[in-house]
Amino acid sequence: MSAAADSSESQPNASAAKGTGPLAGVKVLELGTLIAGPFAARFLGEFGAEVIKIEDPKGGDPLRKWRKLYPEAGGTSLWWAVQARNKKSVTVNLKAEEGKEIVRRLAKEADIVIENFRPGLLEKLGLGYDVLSKENPGLVMVRLSGYGQTGPYRDRPGFGAIAESMGGLRHITGYPDLPPPRIGISIGDSIAALHGVIGAMMALHHRNMNGGRGQIVDVALYEAVFNMMESVVPEYGVYGMVRERTGASLPGIVPSNTYPCRDGSIVIGGNSDPIFKRLMMAIERADLANDPQLAHNDGRVPRTAEIDGAIAAWLSTRTINEALDVLNAADVPVGRIYSVADMFADPQFAARQMIQQFRWQAPGEKEGEGVDIALPSVTPKLSATPGDTRWLGPALGEHTDEVLQALGYDADHIARLREQQIV
């Protein structure tokens, strides 16, 4: 086992099942599937919130069957273990009136509802904010959708990939002579989810400090991506400049690029003025380090090719490790491009306990069976009230009885609901 995994072996903390983080006492109701909404709820659950995830009794969240499964034949997604950690799975048929009543009763006790259905669906089900907030005026509802709750595109289906395209990210990603590639993860969904969490925290603070009323947090996936686009809007507004794809470099910020060594590539960020000078001295180019025209970024930009060429020439005779040794000694930001295998072996990941080992059992497996599973640790790190993994992604409907009993349903009533396929 790697150093990174060895340093942080752990088991879900059953004693902390009720949550001890900064959000302990906050109740979250998750209505949604796949990535954006569930990732937002996961984030809250990692920091102590009680998260009740509503799933369709017939199969649950489709993410349960995405990517690699355990067991490989007919098992559950390994992604599920982290995406649904610390959540309670409750199965409810939202098409049944008694199922909707369960959701209304849960929402009455919730602080936050998170949903990522297409706009209008909750209203059709009789579960819109206007209905839920009548019984719970302090309710905060986070609504994540492709295009937001208003506008001419609101009714279109919208996934993260479409948001990355419309929000501008794809247009500036990749090389100018190739079609825009996608990033290898669902970054549009994740960025939107984090905007949802930030909005929920602001709305909760406003409710608690300024009058006790909740509100809607309307997050459009494309707008969350658009919000990350740095200077593209003012550059177009003032100069009519459309930023294009520039490969591995960061346009207008010099030098910041990916450079080849003898045995692979490294990333160098030498774009602050003092760092640039240290970088040039490290690669034995005192002439460039002391050139007054290159003292500031606006002077370096017109000479980007010359600067990148000097760096590339110096690296061409060196291995990655040789280059890292010299540049780290010169206090220049530099790094190799990590695979997940590199992360498992890296001492920084180990020291920060960023990879934690757990034991995960598939439904039906007996005590002692299961698989060792590595999960990313909770981020960010809070010094006094850190986040935690209290349990891994639950089996479908694992907490249905527990949650319904807490709402006042007795065993006979729950049995009848199950017989009628309402839960």
UniProtKB/TrEMBL annotation:
Coiled-coil regions listed in the entry: none
Gene3D superfamilies, per database record: Crotonobetainyl-coa:carnitine coa-transferase, domain 1, formyl-coa transferase, domain 3
InterPro entries the record matches: CoA-transferase_III_domain (IPR050483), CoA-Trfase_fam_III (IPR003673), CoA-Trfase_III_dom3_sf (IPR044855), CoA-Trfase_III_dom_1_sf (IPR023606)
Record GO terms (molecular function): CoA-transferase activity
Protein keywords: Transferase
Annotated protein name in UniProt: CoA transferase
